[in-house]
Design goal:
The chain has helices at 2-141, 149-177, 181-194, 199-212, 220-232, 238-260. By secondary structure, the protein is mainly α. The protein has a domain at 112-260: Alpha Horseshoe (Serine Threonine Protein Phosphatase 5, Tetratricopeptide repeat). Helix 1 runs antiparallel to helix 2 (149-177) and helix 3 runs antiparallel to helix 4 (199-212). The termini are far apart.
């Protein structure tokens, strides 16, 4: 009986029950979907907010670290500049002291050379007076006429020239010791031309010419011939062999590449 009533109820109201059930399921699914969308939107909003906060925090940390690094770099740069300034000042002081010392040594050497030159000139003049006096005495003893004033003047001129050449050679030596080889070579050339027998001055002329610019190949023939001539006259110095060997090596360097070509 109940079964027949249930079947009759389903027959009459089954469609409506199915529709109601379907609508209920649809409503539940819609509500679940809406809730999921709401949760997704909330999660997305929360994620964006967290990302913004973290990004701002990272930017702030990066800015602070960059500022700190710039401050440290500025301090380090100032420290380096101070150290560089101190070292530069110290080097300048050292250079100044060395230059002052060299100038003082050069001045002392020059003064010593001048004093030596004056003493030599004074001794030459004294010896000249003695020679003139002896010549006059000898002439009076031998009943011969005394030397004329012109002869005496020639003797004085010769002695004066020797004194001048001695001063020039001393000045040339001082210039050579100071490293001013171009001026030294010019002074030694003056002395060697006036005194051909002065092999020392002639050697230092060629040696100063070489030391002034040892790579100037235009001077090689003159220097080599002059030094070889000095050796032929018996003037021997170790620097002569050193200079000649250097010139020979440089000339071979020019010859070998041309032979290879």
């Amino acid at each position: 009986m109940l079964r027949s009533k249930f079947l009759l109820f389903l027959t009459r109201y089954g469609f409506f029950l199915t529709l109601i059930f379907t609508l209920a399921i649809a409503i539940i699914m819609t509500q679940n979907h809406a809730a999921q969308n709401k949760r997704a939107a909330y999660f997305e909003k929360t994620t964006h907010e967290q990302f913004a906060v973290q990004t701002e925090l990272l930017l702030r940390q990066f800015t602070e670290q960059t500022k700190l690094l710039l401050e440290q770099f500025a301090e380090y740069g100032e420290l380096l500049l101070e150290q560089f300034s101190e070292q530069s000042e110290l080097l300048l002081q050292q250079f100044a002291e060395q230059d002052t010392l060299r100038l003082g040594e050069f001045a002392e050497q020059t003064e010593l050379l001048q004093e030596t030159g004056h003493s030599i000139a004074a001794s030459l003049l004294a010896s000249t007076d003695e020679i003139i006096h002896e010549v006059r005495i000898g002439a009076s003893i031998n009943m011969q006429p005394a030397a004329s004033d012109d002869d005496m003047q020639l003797v004085l001129d010769s002695l004066f020239m020797q004194s001048v050449l001695i001063d020039i050679e001393q000045e040339a030596t001082a210039l050579f010791l100071a490293g001013r080889y171009a001026q030294a070579s010019a002074h030694f050339l003056t002395v060697s031309n006036a005194q051909p027998e002065n092999f020392e001055a002639r050697f230092f002329y060629f040696y100063s010419l070489f030391r002034n610019n040892r790579m100037d190949r235009g001077n090689y023939p003159r220097i080599r011939e002059g030094l070889l001539a000095l050796e032929r006259h018996g003037f021997i110095r170790a620097e002569i062999r050193t200079v000649l060997e250097f010139i020979e090596q440089e000339e071979w360097r020019d010859i070998i590449p041309e032979a290879q070509l």
